[in-house]
Amino acid sequence: MNIGFIGLGLMGRPMALHLAKAGHRLHLWARRPAALEAFAEVDAALHASPAEVAAHAEVVFTMVADAPDVEAVALGAEGLASGARPGLVLVDMSTINPNAARQIGGQLAARGIAFIDAPVSGGETGAINASLTIMAGGEPEIFERVRPLFEVLGKSVTLIGGVGAGQVAKACNQILTGVGVMAVAEAFNFAARNEVDVSKVRTALLGGFAASRILENHGQRMLDRNFKPGFKAWMHQKDLRIVMEEAHRLGLMLPASAATAQLFNAMVGSGMGEDDSIAALKLLEKMSSAE
Amino acid sequence: MNIGFIGLGLMGRPMALHLAKAGHRLHLWARRPAALEAFAEVDAALHASPAEVAAHAEVVFTMVADAPDVEAVALGAEGLASGARPGLVLVDMSTINPNAARQIGGQLAARGIAFIDAPVSGGETGAINASLTIMAGGEPEIFERVRPLFEVLGKSVTLIGGVGAGQVAKACNQILTGVGVMAVAEAFNFAARNEVDVSKVRTALLGGFAASRILENHGQRMLDRNFKPGFKAWMHQKDLRIVMEEAHRLGLMLPASAATAQLFNAMVGSGMGEDDSIAALKLLEKMSSAE
What we know:
Chain A is an alpha/beta fold. The first copy, chain A, folds into 2 domains: about 1-160, 3-Layer(aba) Sandwich (Rossmann fold), CATH 3.40.50.720; about 170-290, N-(1-d-carboxylethyl)-l-norvaline Dehydrogenase, domain 2. Helices cover about 50% and strands about 15% of the residues of chain A. The first copy, chain A, contains 13 helices and 9 strands. Chain A has a 6-stranded parallel beta sheet, sandwiched between helices. In chain A, α8 (about 165-195) packs across α11 and α9 runs antiparallel to α10. The radius of gyration of chain A is 20 Å and the shape is elongated. The model of chain A has no long low-confidence stretch (mean pLDDT about 95).
C-alpha cells in the first residue's frame, strides 16, 4: 500500500520503518530534512509538502507534537487536505485534545477525507518493539481498513468509539499513569522520611489492593534511582494540560489530576523536564528536605 | 497459648475466632458486652477489665478504632499495662498514627511490655477468610514469637521495621489505594462526560502501564454501580487524616494525597460515608452534573 507518514521523531521514525519493513511504500515529508536520513535504505519517496504526500497515498499517518501541528499538516497551506485523492484516510497518532480531534475530523469529513484518531501508549520502547497500545476513535469500517497497519505497530489495538474517543482513552491513561506515579512517589517519600525500608513497603504492598504496574515497575526504578526516560516529565505535563483543558471545557472536577498537573509544572520549573516523569520523587524529596 | 483480644468488631471478631479455632484459649473484655455473644461456643474466658485480660495472657491483641482507644486500653485506668505479667506482648492491629504507635510502644517498653504494631489490609472479607495482609513493626525476636499467630490470621505477613513501621506501611497502602480510587473515578467520569464507552476504556487501559488491581477490580464495580462496602468512605477518610497529620508533623508535601483526603471529606459531607470508598465516582458525577 502507498502510505504517507509525517512526524518522524523518536516515536514516528521506528513506526514508519516498521510499515516499510512490512512491505509498504512510504511517502514522506519532514519539516527538518535530517529526519529523512533514516529512510535511505527503505522503499520511501520524499516529497516537497504534505499535499504532495497526500496525492500519492491511500492512508497518511501523522505523529506530531500537538493539535496545532496536526491542524497545520492536515488543513494548512499545502496541507494534506489540499492534495488528497478521493477516499484518503488520515490517521493521527499524536496525543492531542479530544475536542480538537473532533473538530479536525469534522473539517476533514467536509472535504471527503476520513479521519481516525489513534494515540498510543508504550513510549519509544513500544514504538521500537512494535508493542504499542493503540486506542482508536472513528468509523468502524474505516478502522477495519486501517487495522492491519495498526497491527504492524502495536500489540493491543482497540476501537474505543467515534472520532475523538481514542484521545479520550489516552487522556484517561495519562490520568491513571500520572496520578499513579505521584501516589507512589508520595508513599515512597512518606516511608523514607519515616526512616522505613521503602523496598520492604513496596514488596508488602504489591501483595494487596495497592498493586499496580506502576508500583511494580516504576517503583523499582525509583528504588534504583533510575530517572532516565522513558517518558519525559514535560510530555506528561503536556498530556495533563490537555486533561485540564477538557476539565475546564466540560465543567469537570478532577482534583487528583489537578494536583498531579501542578506537580508536573513544578518538575519542569525545577529543571526536571527531561527526566522521566518518575523523577516526581526527586521533586517531593527536594520540597521536604533542608539540603 | 493464652491470648487476650480486645476490640471485637467487624474485623476483630472473626480474627479472634480464628485464633480460638487454632486451639488457643481466649481472654476477652469488651466495652459492649453484646460483642462477646459470638464467643459462647469457643474456649474463651470473659474478664472485667483489660488489666484482668493482661493478667491471664502471654499475648494480647487489640483491634480498635483509633490511637486514643489503643492508649486507653493499653495505658489507661485498669488498662493492660496495669495488669500485665512479665514478658507480655501487646500486638496492636488497629490502624493508627505511626508516631502514636511509637509513643505507645515507648511507654509500654518502659513498663517491661513488648509492643508490635501490625495493621492489616484486606478488610472484613480478609478477616473472615484469614487472608489479611499484615504489615508489622517491632523487634525481630518479638515478631518471630508472634508470627505463628499472624499466620493464623493472614496470608501475607511482613516485618517492615521497628515499632511504627507497620503503621507507616499501612499509611502508604492507604495513600496508594485512596489516590488510586480517585484516579480511576476521575478517568471514568472524564470518559463518561465525553460520551465514550467507559468499559472499553477500562479494558484498553488494563493492557498497559495504567493497569492496577484497583482499575481491574474496583473499576469493574464502578461499571456495575456496586457501591456496597467493602471499605467504607469514612474509614478511608480517617486513614488519610492520619497521613495528613504525619505530613504536617514531618513537613512533607503530599499534593495528590491531600486532594484525595479532601474528596473523602466531601464524600462524608455528602452523606456517602457508609458507601464504599469507590462511591467517589458518585461524588465526582454529582459535582459535574446539573441533575
